[in-house]
Batch of 3 targets.
Target 1
Amino acid sequence: MEKLISELRRLYLPADAPPLEALARHLRGEDTLVLGLTDSAGLSRAALIPFRKTGEGGEHWTLLCAVANALQQDLGLPAPAVSISGDGAYGLWLSFEQPVPAARLAEFVALLRTAYFPDVELDPGAAVGPVELPPCLHRATGMWAAFIHPGMGASFADEAGLDMAPPAAGQAAFLEHLESIGTEAFEQALGKLRPAPALTAQAAPAAPAKTVDEGLLLKDATLEDIVAYLHSKNIEPTFRHLLPR
């Protein structure tokens, strides 16, 4: 139990989280705490993105997988934790190395929603709580919320949660190798998600940009051609060079 609480504190809990014994009772199912992820200063080190079942089948799981992959492949962020809620929803748990203002996290999740899951209803501020932190007993259903192995997520598509309490050691094992999002990586991800500012009249080009042929990038493209092509695909270019070893 101590290892699990240590991992939850490392990844998700604010500095003014409930004391050790209260958390232990929560994790044992003796009590179920509804926790805010934001501390008294309005800062949070965690965000939860819920994916609730909206119909038959596992569409909510498929969508969660797409978003989890986008966080890593498109935005360069570490893998999030995955949970089942005890009432049929999945969750993606994001952890941040340094506390982030709750409003900034709300902006980040809203931008993620716009980019990757616009059809999912998400209450403003829901990402930073209050939440029932897994593992815990969901009182309304009698099922357990728990962190799960992503490779087994599809098997829970028709389940509300677990029938019994998950072993604390196993829950800790799911969390111990997870990394938190660093400040630089977070700012870069925000920059990628924010829409590009519209050109002002003074900055607008005097003539329309020329159309870039699909095959031009492999032939005689200029830097301007490459930028125009990437912008036509809604991609913000980042240019790097390799120094000789």
Target 2
Amino acid sequence: MKALPALAIGDFRERPAAAALGRSFASVWVHRLPEAAAPIVVTPDGTIDLQWIDGGFRVAGPDRDPKLELLPAGTTVIGFRFHPGAAAAWLGMPAAEIAGQRLALDELWGPKARRLAAGIRPDRDTAGLIGELEAAIAALAPARRAPDPVMRAAFELVRSGPPPGAPLVPWLGRALAMSERTLRRRFDESFGYGPKTLDRIMRYQRFLGLSRRSAQPTARLALEAGYADQAHLVRESRRLAGVTPHELGRILNHG
């Protein structure tokens, strides 16, 4: 059975997180998988999620490469997407320790996570369940460290991309007033990998965003997203999504 990109499978909806979660979480999303089971490929996007699935919480760490998952047919996943750089403070551990992993929250927190999940009634309708989950997560807020605003700013710099011709790491170091060594350590702690890896991932996300909004030729979109040429984009697409841009477009347009 061929694996398909997650964004091509089932029904996905996203909205801003409740105000009580706004310090640490950017959004809440619901992904309903179809009744026919199929493996899905999760493309790295530079984010970390707290997910409610099968009656418990799990943490989806930051991915460097495509992640193959096979979930039961008809599964509904409710995800709470952390603001950039906020997961490490909320979880109480460096993001590098969970990179590329899907970990039950009780593996990280033990009994505290089990108590958190025990108060949730999984038989609620989706809207009611999301409300319960948001309230339970918000109740933890006083005990969580505040996110690092400097690293959130660092993420936005990488997402925008450096000026043409500017080497990424020296440019970031000047913008953030950090040495290269400090920069790499802080990126590992906050995002799970270094600036260059995050830059590769965000550049591909820029291309995906442009391709959804524009009918321009792929070669033009590649340059606009920051690739050297179309061949560079094709190589990165295979590495990060498991398919070429042409194959991805065909899947999304025709299923």
Target 3
Amino acid sequence: MASVCHFRRFCRLPMKRFYSTIEKKTVLYDFHVSHGGRMVPFAGWMMPVQYNNSGIKESHLHCRSKASLFDVSHMLQANLSGPQVTKLLKALFVADVDALTQHHSVYTLLTNDNGGIIDDAILTCTGQDSYYLVSNASRADTVTTRLKQVHEEQQADANIDILMEYSLLALQGPAMASVLSQGVSHNLDGLSFMTSIMMEVFGIPQCRVTRCGYTGEDGVEIQVPSSRAVELADKLLQFDDVQLAGLGARDSLRMEAGLCLYGQEISEDTTPVEAGLAWCITKQRRKQSFPGHQKIIDQLKNGATKRKIGLKYEKGPPSRGGSEILDKDGNTIGVVTSGCPSPTLDCNIAMGYVPTSHAKLNNELQVSVRKKQFSASVCKLPFIPLNYHYKK
């Protein structure tokens, strides 16, 4: 029990920065409460951080071994379409939109003129001149404003439809496919990582199922009409392998997978190169203009002054966002952006930024926690192997 309490105490999300005067509720709010969800404000919404029947650590390990159901309906969903929609998208995102074919998705970044990251998102081609966008709840207003601003500047013949009548459920974990296959007629073996298709799910028509997620496990995100979201959640929970999971486990899972969280690892002051996300800008796209192009290309050619790193250390309490990173001589050189005890690795892990000169793998550094210094080493990200489903 002590180790569980220790994990709960230190694996906390930086929720204060997302507080708003009136918190919104997803259609699953009462469903979460009835299942023992501990509701907290996050990104302007009331969301479950964990459930009474399991702690964050237990929920985390369940996702790694079986399957967990997350409510991610707070995220921004939009359809973008029209004859000049690619013109609009290329003026917003770093993605190679021209190379994106129907039913395929791509992780991409919305950048500003200084090369900073306004938000990260998943963009899916749903048909000719038609795309589906999912981005962060904490950046919904900023992204929506940016979409409309660039649409007006480009005078593009395109439509922006913010989807208000749809919920989003994420089923993540190695048991996902065996569970979901019992409620769909589509062969899930053919639905590989970062592909998407409309299908009927447990009797609910017109659900968009995208094989993606933010846990490092095989999983899907299911767009479902909000009027039937509770019905779908109930049906999925009928399977013994499926448990509800909240923000706490979602955060520790994505940290083990080395995935960025907006407001932590990425922000408008962080470039894709600094954040280790330059891989999402293809060679073809690097030849074309996009917001912040000049600065980003310069960093690709000449290097950035700081880099995101992963850190492991065993002794001491886990670090949290804001903890100092020091060199071997005790000089402060950087800051932790996220940290937690890793249930999978049974050690402390963290991500943060340091000068590029200190970012070499296996470099010995220190992390300051509660005014004490603990030895840590720079390690490769992700911290664990990723278990995404690819076509054989």
